[in-house]
Design a protein that fits this description.
By secondary structure, this protein is an alpha/beta fold. It folds into two domains: 3-195, Rossmann fold (3-Layer(aba) Sandwich); 224-459, Aldolase class I (TIM Barrel), CATH 3.20.20. The protein has helices spanning 42-53, 110-119, 136-149, 160-164, 166-172, 187-195, 242-245, 254-268, 288-297, 319-328, 352-365, 385-398, 416-422, 449-459, and strands spanning 3-5, 21-26, 29-31, 57-62, 87-89, 104-106, 125-128, 155-157, 177-179, 225-227, 230-231, 250-251, 272-275, 305-312, 330-338, 372-378, 401-406. It has a six-stranded mixed β-sheet with strand order 1-9-8-7-2-4, sandwiched between helices. The chain has a six-stranded parallel β-sheet with strand order 10-13-14-15-16-17. α8 crosses α9 and α10 (319-328) packs across α11 (352-365). The protein starts with a strand and ends with a helix.
């Protein structure tokens, strides 16, 4: 992936020690709704680990920090590590004034952020990540405040928004450089270009097994740890940008994954581990099964709880896999069903019978209904309400819980042109209009009615 440069160069300078100090920042979420469902900036924490491993000094500020010392709502005992963010209501972005929903900044107040910035060692460089494309206003404010404190320090932006909407980020983020693609393979070159500090890589940065564990220990509190055991996906779902973000299929070895699980549990007492993989169960004979068997054999299944918010592929769930996942301590399972309506006849990855068989295997292994959720895409271009109802009914009858997944139009996906054509907004002009909370892929104005009906429908027993 390329690295786009904007705004010119900043002076290259290092402290007398010759070692750069690098500040890494996770920005706010600007949205109509947000909740910490195991959301951590995995890529940014990996960059921190790589830099620290090579001798750089690093600091980390998380604008979404639920455990900030000034917060009166800290809850270290939240269920499975999840919990609500702090939030403050702010004006809606231009073009969304007609949406009858409150818009908020999720995370710590800006004045706390400024205090935290001023308290860190003066950085030689700042790395800012980005997540959902329509959260970019939080990125803008974050970079603006960093500039107000460190006007001459180069600010580098990476992450999902920076990769999917590079041109927009170059024009509007305020960063000195916008980095697209995998940061860990580029970071040492970027630091050299920005600060003059040059080191020889101590590991193969392309090898997932060679990389250090992401620096989750930089957080004030570690309510859970996110695990990336593989990247990429063998499928090409029309709505998904995984193939663009991670075009290569790469794996970590089961032994290395197990080592990381044990490290966070034994050294920091972390009990909740969250798999971020897009295809955790693919090639399970060489990947997931050996890992699950090792977790069980070493007795970690009773000490650690595992979760799969990114969803697992239904076709890969066999009776053996289901038994192993239950014995290994999986507590929250999400299945990537998509839809059971006529649009895809489930989806092209799975048939109706395969879905029912997967749920039956999970329930036979010991999983309860509330542990098994099936994601159902809603708000698709041209989607019929009767197809949504049918999908919900299929999931309910299977014994799993239907979970609406509101469709977000994403650039570089197969469904993007159709989403653009079906929207009442100019999606190509501004990522703000791709927010799934506003149901962007319809010509009709926003209405609470379908949301209320869907909530009632999925809550029915």
């Amino acid at each position: 992936m390329k690295m786009a440069k904007i705004l010119g160069n900043r002076p290259k300078s290092l402290p007398p020690s010759g070692v750069p100090h690098i500040l890494l920042v996770n920005p706010w979420i600007y949205d109509f709704a947000a909740y910490d469902f195991w959301a951590k900036p995995q890529g940014l924490l990996m960059l921190a680990a790589v830099l620290r491993y090579h001798g750089a000094s690093v600091s980390y500020i998380d604008c979404l920090d639920r455990f900030h010392p000034r917060s009166e709502k800290r809850d270290t005992a939240a269920r499975y590590g999840k919990g609500p963010y702090l939030k403050s209501r702010i004006p809606k972005p231009p073009g969304l004034e007609d949406i009858p929903r409150n818009y908020s900044r999720y995370g710590i107040p800006p004045e706390w952020f400024l205090e935290d910035i001023k308290a860190v060692e003066h950085p030689d460089m700042v790395l800012v990540t980005s997540m959902m494309t329509y959260w970019y206003p939080g990125v803008q404010e974050c970079i603006s405040l960093i500039r107000s404190v460190f006007p001459e320090v180069p600010v580098i932006l990476g992450g999902i928004y920076a990769t999917l909407c590079s041109d927009h980020a170059v024009r509007f983020s305020g960063a000195d450089r916008v980095v697209a693609g995998r940061g860990e393979t580029q970071i040492l070159d970027i630091v050299r270009q920005c600060t003059g500090w040059s080191v020889t890589p101590k590991m193969n940065l392309q090898d997932m097994d060679a990389l250090p564990f992401p620096a989750a220990d930089l957080q004030r509190h570690i309510p859970y740890v996110t695990l990336m055991t593989s990247t990429g996906c063998p499928f090409s779902c029309a709505y998904c940008a995984c193939g663009f973000l991670n075009p290569e299929r790469r794996f970590r070895s089961p032994d290395r994954i197990f080592e990381e699980i044990g490290y966070w549990n034994s050294c920091y007492g972390v009990q909740d581990m969250v798999f971020y993989d897009d295809a955790l169960l693919v090639d399970s004979q060489h990947h997931a099964i050996p890992l699950f068997e090792k977790i069980i054999a070493e007795g970690l299944g009773g000490r650690i709880r595992f979760h799969t918010p990114n969803a697992v592929h239904i076709r890969e769930i066999t009776p053996q896999i289901a038994r192993l996942m239950f014995a290994a301590g999986f507590k929250t399972l999400r299945l990537g069903l998509e839809t059971a309506g006529s649009r895809h006849d489930m989806d092209y990855k799975v048939t109706h019978q395969e879905f029912l068989a997967a749920v039956a295997s999970l329930k036979a292994a010991g999983f309860q209904r509330e542990q098994i959720g099936a994601y159902l895409l809603t708000g698709l271009p041209g989607q019929r309400w009767e197809d949504v109802v049918k999908s919900v009914e299929v999931v309910r009858q299977s014994g799993a819980a239907p979970i609406p997944a509101y469709f977000t139009p994403i650039p570089h996906t197969k469904l993007w042109p159709q989403a653009v054509a079906s929207s009442r907004y100019d999606l190509e002009a501004d990522p703000i209009f791709t927010n799934n909370a506003i149901f962007p892929c319809t010509k009709e104005p926003f209405s609470w009615k379908p949301l209320a009906m869907l909530k009632k429908l999925t809550a029915a027993v």
